[in-house]
Amino acid sequence: MTDSYLNATTPDLESRARPEDHGDLRLWLRLLTCCNLLESDIRSRLRTEYETTLPRFDLMAQLLRAPEGMKMSELSRHMMVTNGNITGITDQLEKEGMVERNKVATDRRSSIIKLTAKGKRTFRKMAESHEQWIQGVMAGMSEKSKKNLFEALGELKLIVQTQLTLRS
Amino acid sequence: MTDSYLNATTPDLESRARPEDHGDLRLWLRLLTCCNLLESDIRSRLRTEYETTLPRFDLMAQLLRAPEGMKMSELSRHMMVTNGNITGITDQLEKEGMVERNKVATDRRSSIIKLTAKGKRTFRKMAESHEQWIQGVMAGMSEKSKKNLFEALGELKLIVQTQLTLRS
Fold it and tell me: What is the 3-state secondary structure (H, E, C) of chain B?
């Protein structure tokens, strides 16, 4: 697990904006700063409270959503981290009894990865903490402000998705 | 340059939220999705239009803000990427004539890194494109919506920063 546009050492990126910068750039830097602050907090809590990393958390989150298991190739498509380390993370989680690998009957070369019962229990506990951390960090914001932000982000998301689809 | 909570293969993370999830978690996933979409677009444009990477762009951005140059240690503190690759990136940029290293008179073990004139020209061109990409992607959003989003994010940023400061 390595570097990120977002990481714990990141200062307030918005301070990078110069007065002459266009409003859209300032908006993007502010968006990124918010993501940075929250993501680095999550990384640090996963590390100190669960001795785990975001990619491990992410991989387990994917598997929880696929009770029938996933092939390695599907995992890499769905994960938030690129596939560089997926094999390594899976090996490690298997050793710890969190996931199990089973051969696919129709394709002997690939395996299906599943969370074990222990893996499910462990992940659910972390996911609950994860949710509580987010709630704790956002506690000072009124419900009205959160609703406004949620809607404004919804609009941005739609516009960005549309733009990217038009271009592709 | 490697993995990220944010990356090009990331699908819409918000789809990961379950109906029973708390609103704060949904808000976080939506925020992260917006960052993902924009960041992966920037990475892909830097690659296709400038054959460069986000950490290289980031490093040059830091240096542009420090006309007197920066020590390696300062660079790693200020960059958006962790310091794993900073030495490698700096070596590469030096070979390409984008940066220069000068020994510090008072401390022979450390060097000051600066953008060369070529580095400045190159970075300014990329930064201009970067800004235009952001504007292009956000073009479908009204000024009023952008203003609302900017303010709502400002509120979130302040609350998160306050929370993190209180805890540290």
Answer: CCCCCCCCCCCCHHHHCCCCCCHHHHHHHHHHHHHHHHHHHHHHHHHHHHCCCHHHHHHHHHHHCCCCCEEHHHHHHHCCCCHHHHHHHHHHHHHCCCEEEEEECCEEEEEEEEECHHHHHHHHHHHHHHHHHHHHHCCCCCHHHHHHHHHHHHHHHHHHHHHHHHHC
Q: What is the pLDDT along chain B (168 residues), one digit of tens a residue?
A: 233 343 334 456 666 666 666 799 999 999 999 998 898 899 999 999 999 998 899 899 999 989 999 998 888 877 765 545 788 899 999 999 999 999 888 877 788 999 999 999 999 999 999 999 999 999 989 999 999 999 999 999 999 999 888 887
Whether A2 is covered by a domain: the verdict is: no
Q: Does B76 touch chain A (CB under 8 A)?
A: yes
Please count the structural domains in chain A. Answer: 2
Model's pTM, two decimal places? Answer: 0.82
ipTM of the complex: 0.83
Q: Do A157 and B33 touch (CB under 8 A)?
A: yes
Looking at the fold, whether B153 and B100 belong to one and the same domain comes out as: no
In the stretch 81-110 of chain A, residues with CB closer than 8 A to chain B read 81-85
Chain B interface includes A74 (CB < 8 A): no
Chain A, chain B: beta-carbon pairs less than 8 Å apart: 230
A60: containing domain = 13-141
